[in-house]
């Protein structure tokens, strides 16, 4: 699992970055409360859906595409309910529940990677996971 920074408008957040299939599958399962912020990066847009089986903490799940927040969902602990619509996304950020509201995160806000930036992350993925 990589670590880095993401930005949402003028705020910068430390985040774990799940880029491998294994990291993305595990996500925040079994993490104690409060969980760290975790970002799921995808090199291209796709429809992404999540569930919370084995995730013990409630989450705010922020779907992003083309540098903008496109959807904000609630992740119910230990649930197999599918989260996310049929919108395309290439970055999803999981926050402890309540974080989105307390930090005024809203649909349409600018979002992206600070470090590693997207080009650095693509090189890292290619080198580490031999894509």
Describe the structure.
By secondary structure, this protein is an alpha+beta fold. The protein has one domain: Sandwich (Jelly Rolls), CATH 2.60.120. 17% of the residues lie in helices and 41% in strands. The protein has a 7-stranded mixed β-sheet. A hairpin with a 2-residue loop joins strand 4 (59-65) and strand 5. The two termini are 17 Å apart. The relative contact order is 0.24.
For the record, give the distance between the C-alpha atoms at the N and C termini, rounded to a whole number: 17 Å
Helix amount: 10-25%
N-to-C SSE series? EEHEEEEHEH
Sheet with the most strands, sense and barrel status: 7 strands, mixed
Instruction: Output the structural class.
Output: alpha+beta
What is the CATH first-level class name?
Answer: Mainly Beta
Please list the strands of the largest sheet in the order they lie side by side: 5-4-6-3-2-1-7
> What's the structural domain tally?
1
